[in-house]
Amino acid sequence: MRKEDLEAMDFEELWLLHEELTKVLAEKITAEKQELEKRLSQLYRLDQATPDERTLEPSAPVRRKYPKVIPKYYNPLRPSETWSGRGKQPRWLVAALQSGHVLEEFKIPEKTEASDTSTNEQEHS
What we know:
This protein is mainly alpha-helical and 125 residues long. It is 51% helix and 7% strand.
């Protein structure tokens, strides 16, 4: 619609056109808002999903599985408390080291094949 056409209209026609435009704009804004809310909810669900559930990012690197680390040190007061020697030292070990103990005192004895074989031989005789 050209500007001259609008200027040629009387007040009543312009007001009806204004109301019609307002109605159409409101419908389009509502539709756009619903589309954006739908996209936001999808992004929120994706953000809350576990890495396996995230299918929109197939190029995301997969973490390598590391072998289980066996414990090397134990708490003599509570043998179930162990430490692998990696990462931060547990509180029980820090306290013991500060009180004058040496790390080697807490080492878990390694099982060797020679000692296992001699034990087996003694059991069979």
